[in-house]
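Following up on my earlier thread - several people asked me to post the actual chain instead of describing it. Fair enough. Here it is, all 668 residues.
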Amino acid sequence: MVHMLAKYAFALALPFALGAQQGFDVNALDRSADPCVDFYQYACGGWMAGNPIPSDRAIWGRFNELEERNQKILREILEKVSANDPNRSESDRKLGDYYAACMDEAGIDAKGLAPLQPDLDRIAALKDKGELAGVIVRLHQIGAGALFGFSSTQDFKNSSQVIAEADQAGLGLPDRDYYLKTDAKSVELRKQYVAHVASMFRLLGDTSQDAAAKAQVVMDIETALAKASLDIVSRREPAKVYHKMSKQELAGLNPSFGWLRYLETVGAPPVESLNVTYPDFFRALDGLLRSQSLDHLKTYLTWHLVHSQAALLPTAFVNEDFDFYGRTLTGARQIRPRWKRCVAATDGDLGEALGRKYVDLTFGAEGKQRTLQMVQAIEKALEEDIRQITWMTPETKQQALVKLHAVTNKIGYPDQWRDYSALKILRGDALGNSQRGTRFEFERRLAKIGKPVDKKEWGMTPPTVNAYYNPLMNNINFPAGILQPPFFDKSMDDAVNFGAIGAVIGHELTHGFDDEGRQFDAQGNLRDWWTPQDSREFTRRSECFVEQYGQYKAVDDVKLNGKLTLGENVADNGGVRLALMALLATDAGKRQAKIDGFTPVQRLFLGWGQIWCQNRTEQAARLRAAVDPHSPGRYRVNGVVSNSPEFRSAFACKEGQPMVRPKECRVW
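Reply from S.P.:
Thanks for posting it. Predicted structure:
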C-alpha cells in the first residue's frame, strides 16, 4: 500500500568532486519544438538528444543521473571501510566485509555451487509433500518467493496494530498477465523465459533434455499460479486485498499445505489471525499441490532457489540471469559493473548502517529544515484547495482537512538507526552474507506481528533516490538520497524549485486523496469518510484521467493502462497544481520578471518537465506499461500541462492545440 513516487530529488550540493549535478538547464530545451504542441519535447528534447541510454541501463533519466552520483558516494564510503583494518568500528567492519565479499568475483567462482549446496540438498531430500512447509520456511527466509509470500502488515481496519499477511507470489515473470496474454510478443517472451530456465538447470548440471523438461514443469506450475492470482489493477483496490482470517481458516483454504507447521517455524510470534490478501489464490494453491507430483514440486522449488540467489553465484549464473532479466526483458545491452551491483546489495542488506554514513556526508540539519519549509508551503496550498473546491460537500471537506492536518512528515533519515548487531557478516562469504541479511530483515518484519505500529520506522534507506506516501500511516517520506539537484537546487529561483520538488511534495500529499489513499482516514484505517454524493463525484472525475491516459501509447501497439496509473496521474496533476498555488502565494510568484526569457509560471512548468527527461528502450517501455503504476515521463509532463489553464495562459496556447485538452481532467 505504499505509494512509491518514481525517483524524485531535492537537496544541497555535495562535498565530492564527482562532476557537477545540474538542475534546470536551458540547454536541455528543444527550441525548435512548439510548447503548445509537445511540451515534453520542448522541455527535454535537447537533453534526450545529448543523453543516450548507457549500455548497462534500460532507462536513462534525470533521476538516474542522481542515482549514479549517489552510488559513487556510497562506493567511496564502502571502499574506504573495506580495507581489512582491525581498528574499524564493528559497523564499518560489517559494511566493508560485506562489500569486499561481494566484490570478490574470483573467490565466488572458485567456490562454485558449494555455498548453495545445502539448500539444494534440502529440496532434494524431500520425502513427501508433508515436509514442504519446512523447506518453504527456509526459502522464504533467504528471499526465494516460492508458492506464496508471507510477511507483516498494518491491519487495514486497526492501523495501530501489526498483523501477519499471506499473499500471492511464486512467479518468475514480472506479473500474472505475462503468462496469460496471447499476443505474439507475449508468446515469444514465454518461450525465451522457458529457454532461460532450462539454461539455469543446465548450469546446475542437468542434461539439455532434462533441463528442457524441468523448465516446462516450472512454466506449467507458474502458469497455474498466475491464473489463480488477482490482477494488478484489482490489487490497487484495498478491499480486494484485505481478508482477515484465523490461522485455522487459512489452513482450511489450503489443507494440502502444512500451515500450522509453517507458522510455528517461520520465526514469527504466535499468529492467531492474519490478512489473507486473496483467498481464491490459496484455494487454487491447494489444488495445485494435490495435482503436482513431488518431483515436479522439487523442480519448481529448485528453480526459485537458484533464481533468487543468482546475483551471488558464479559468473556463468550471473550472466545467464542478466541475459534474460536484463537484455531480453528490459533491453539493457551490458550488465552493470560489479561495484554498482555490490553497492546496491550492501544498501539492501545494511541500508541504515550505510545510510548513516551517507547522511553525515551529504545532508545535515540545513537540508531537513529547507525541505520542511517547502512541505509546509505545499500543505497550506492543499488546505486552501480543499476549502475552495466546489464539487465536495462541507461534510466531506471537513474530514479531508482533518486528514490533511494529521499527515506527518519524515525528512532525510530515521530518528533512531537500525541495530544490526545480531547480523553475522563474514569476509569471503558473499552468498552467506546475502542470505543472512535477507533472513535478518525477514525476521525483523515478522517480529513486529502483534505489536503496536512503529510510526517512526522508514520503508526506504536514506541513500534511496525515491519518495513515498504511506496511507496506513498517513505520512510522507523523503529520504536524503532524493534531496539533491536537479530536483531541488539552491542556486535556482523559487519557480523552478516549486516546479520540481514542490510538485513532488504535492504529489505525495495528493496520494492521501487519490483513488486508493482517499479510502483511508486520518489514522490510516480503511474507512469510508465520504458522503455517497462526494464519492460518486470523485469517481466520475477520476474516470476522466482513466480515459485520458489510457489513450497514450507506451510503445508501438501498447497503450498505457489508465486504471493502473490512475493514482499516480491524479497525484501528478494535483501536485503540480499545488506547487503553482504555493508559488503564486510567494513574492516570486507575484512578480513577472523573466529569467532566461521565461516568466515564473513558465519556469515552474519547465522545472516540472525537466525532472522527467528520459530515454527508454522498447523492451523497458513494454515492461513498464504492464507493471508500473507510473506513466512514462513524456505523459507525466504532457498529461499534466494539457489539463492546466495556467499552462495554456503562460505559453499562449490556443484551442485545438495538443497541449490544450478540450475536456480538462481535475480532481484536486
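Residues 1-20 have pLDDT under 50 and may be disordered. That should answer part of your original question.
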